[in-house]
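Final report, closing paragraph on structural work. Over the funding period we assembled a curated collection of sequence-structure pairs, and we close with a single example.
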Amino acid sequence: MNLGMILNAPYPPDMRVKKETDALIKAGFTIHLLCLRKKNEATTEIVNGVHVTRIDAGKNNVQLAFWDMVIAFTFQHPVFKKKMQKWIRANNLSVIHVHDLPLVGTALALRKKFNLTVIADFHENYPEGLRTWFAWKKGLAVKLKNRIFMNPDRWENHERTAVLKSDRVIAVVEEMKKRLLQKYQPAVDTIHVISNTEEKAFINQEIDPAVYSGFANKFKILYSGSIGPHRGVDTAVEAMQYLKGYHDIEFIIVGSGSKDVMNHLKTLAGRLSVTDHVHFLGYQSFKKFFSYMHFADVNIIPHKSNLHTDNTIPHKLFQAMMAARPVLVSSSDPLKRIISTHHAGLVFEAGNAKDFADKILELYNDRARAAALGENGKNITLHGDLNWDTEQKNLVTFYKDVFNQLT
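Its predicted structure, as stored:
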């Protein structure tokens, strides 16, 4: 069972790719991954049991932007397309798993020639992401490039083609599956959900109480992970203006974004006079994430609610639940559904800073309730079925069925 995967990014460290490949290798599949090469990386090597082949198609933002524009013309990546043909023959591949929308057209272009089964794994609602990811960009050239080449309407048309022509589609959350079925009306049995739940082993990270050195006796609100306009971190910063009278409430940001994104948030904190209570700790090792989450008083996922965020789900939601702390999420559909169903935290109206602050005060003033909500999250993720240990069984079953149909 040789399975080919293509990824328009370096590997490692993509978390979804690693979890999927780990599960499939453990089940007896051989995984061949074709991906981008970073500077000084080997062209071929085995990483985490994956047979990785890397290609040179962008090692910096300028080069990557160039290839983004090339793909946008025909929805095919010429470098991947050329390399894939030799790679497919060399590894005797008949099934190609495409990570996210941009490379689906490339796989479909080779489908007939190699009699391929193409599986499109949509990590997110890519066309709608294009409407939000670059909202805080300042450079005129970047804005012009995105408007011309990264046009969401054109990419939505391509998404339609990808959904209808791929043999099967993997959606990351139920809301995404529902949208694809309603919008493009493919056969119902071609869309499958494999979510971004977390491995139970996440809680085995070494505990480091020193991550919050300097925040003793503080009520710590934690945002962790990547930062962009769609993530809603600005809403949390704005909320601090309603909380700055509480001298022990601190908002801590672990993670980073582009220069424009971080400047936007820091400028906002300054304008609202909350810089003393908003702390940017920058990039931190993933090995410390459980400690950051576990020793926080509340973890937050304040996503804006739009057609992008309402059709995806972050790994860190399940990580935060495992940390046994209440999670404050926005009313973005998947976040609201999961937290409300399992009583693992509170929900605020997306984009509403005052409501965010009010919900923080509910947790601040009722620590017993906060602890109970945290325990609910821990129980469903560690002792229930809301974890990757359960979800990976669905992925393995899915691929066994794919290969059985080829024989």
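DSSP finds 17 helices and 14 strands in the chain. The chain has a mean pLDDT of 94. We thank the funder for supporting this effort.
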